[in-house]
Amino acid sequence: MIETYGLTRRFGTLTAVSQVSLRVPDGTILALLGPNGAGKTTTIRMLAGLLAPSEGDATVAGYDIEREPDAVRACVGLVTDTPGLFEQIKVPAYLDFFGSIYGISAAERTRRIDELLEFFDLEEHRNEKMAGFSKGMKQKVALARALIHEPAVLFLDEPTSGLDPLAARAVRELIVGLKQASRSIILCTHDLDEAERLADEVAIIRQGRIVAHDTPAALRRQVTGETQVMIEFADDCPLPVEALATIDGVNSPHFREKKATGSLSSVTQPGALILEYHTPRPKLVNPQVLSRLSAAGAQVVSVTSETSSLEDVYASAMGDGGAAIADQEQTKVPSVVPEEK
Amino acid sequence: MNTETQSYTAHTTYNKASAQQITWLIARRQIGEAVRDRSTLIMSGFFLAFQTVLVLISVGPALGDHTQNGLSNAGGLLAFFLLFVGLMPATPAIGIASGVFAGDKERGSLTPLLVTPASNTAIFTGKVLGAILPALAYAAIGILVYFAEISLLYGPDKLALFPIGFSVLIVLLIPAIVLFGTALASVISSRVRTFQSAQNYSSIILVVLWLGLGALFFLARAWGLWAFASAVIGVYVIAVLLIVVSAATWRREEVMARQ
């Protein structure tokens, strides 16, 4: 469990992190999104017991980061975008070094190292110096290092940065596995798709402040507040747009012709028609629309709905929309955790 | 990646290793790195070979003069070379010390160490100790090779030409200088942002150190043994103070804040 209340860090006159309040329960992943210099790494460094906060409180696995930094460091694992290995030695010796610092007994270290080598498919490379490893393999070793002491909390600062797609996918699979083992994980990433796929919650940080924080689905809803629905017909729709507009919750209904697959946008597929509308309550409104269409004898081929992507949310948070989302965030945070001491 | 074999349980706690154990672990790893560093090995090997040639060229002819004055001069020369052969092979290791913090920081390998429960003192002392011990070992090897060379090339009896008091003080001065130079290079390395800066500062230190030593050597002969002994003790005191004060004031937070 990670909890922060009004966490702030200043470097001279620069406020790198300002009033960050977060809660990451066990077995959940929080993705921290933001541009370079937004304060993601500083936040992680404070939570990992590497930097003292200028203001605010935080507990990590039940330990206070300011009063018990040694205890915090004993129960966290950190992986950065740079593997940071001692490349002239072999993986077992490297893991053994860190295992010894964490006070793991020799027998336990041997067991853990064997287990980690097998888990990361590094067994066949155990007698090789790490200098010859690929970036993906080095990142696996960095993850193994972060796990040698079985930490309750993991901080992953752009762990898939610079990895090829397959290696990145392998690391993502691992992260999901780690979450399932009841760990609290904070994942800093620029990859919105990665955040959307892995994270239970997403916090967007801009100029040191959290400007949006919720589940990915809830954040997407915050941007437009509406879902776009598209209903495709086999033939013409028997109901006029005006008839559909009378249903409460159906906004901006209109017809358009379906574009032929792979064609230019100007080319349409003759006969196929699509009804589009927006609704703030799709679960309530869509059945009504379909019922009305069915009663009128419409032949519905498919129904699809789209909410905003996380990219839209991020763009909104980074632009002017950030202020609006931040306002919502300010009013929401105290219900979860007190924003200030 | 074998996700099926995952059986980790979070919240496992281990008994923290003692500060001494952690210090030694860090020192041992640092020593391993210094010993494996090919450029240091090549440089130290070069200096050992160079001293052999130098002894052959310089000391050999001096030992051929069997007059009282000639033997006295030969003794002085042997003592001078003692300082030289002790410090030359250790110099690359002092240079390596400039990378113990700054180099690791640049490679990203310092952060994983800082995020462990190891105390600030254990990390600093371990890294400095790991820089000092290889330099001392290279110095000892240089001295032993020198004595062996004199014995083998000119006979063991020539070892008696070394002015005893003066030579003992030089043998004691070498570790003091190595300690001081390595500690200073390590301290600088811990306080600068880049390896390049650390190396630049260390180069200046080495030049000043060599000039100081040269001056000390010639002054010592004029001052006498007690003054020289005091100077040796002074270097030890300064080196130890430097390490103790730096270890007590070094904070990982400052390293992270400077990144």
Short description:
The complex is a heterodimer of chains A (341) and B (259). Chain A is α/β, with parallel strands linked by helices and 341 residues long.
Describe this structure in words.
The complex is a heterodimer of chains A (341) and B (259). Helices cover 38% and strands 28% of the residues of chain A. By secondary structure, chain A is an alpha/beta fold. Chain A has two domains: 2-222 and 312-336, Rossmann fold (3-Layer(aba) Sandwich), CATH 3.40.50; 235-298, no CATH class. In chain A, a hairpin with a 2-residue loop joins strand 1 (2-11) and strand 2. Chain B is mostly helical and 259 residues long. In chain B, helix 8 (164-191) packs parallel to helix 10 and helix 9 (195-223) runs antiparallel to helix 10 (225-249). Chain B is elongated. At the A-B interface, helix 2, helix 3, helix 4, helix 5 and helix 6 of A face helix 1, helix 6 and helix 11 of B.
CATH domain class of the largest domain in chain A: Alpha Beta
Shape of chain B: elongated
**Unreliable segments of 5+ consecutive residues of chain B:** 1-11
The tally of strands of chain A reads: 14
Element-by-element helix/strand order of chain B: HHHHHHHHHHH
Number of strands of chain B: 0
CATH architecture of the largest domain in chain A: 3-Layer(aba) Sandwich
What structural class is derived from the secondary structure elements of chain B?
mainly alpha
* Strand-residue proportion of chain B: under 5%
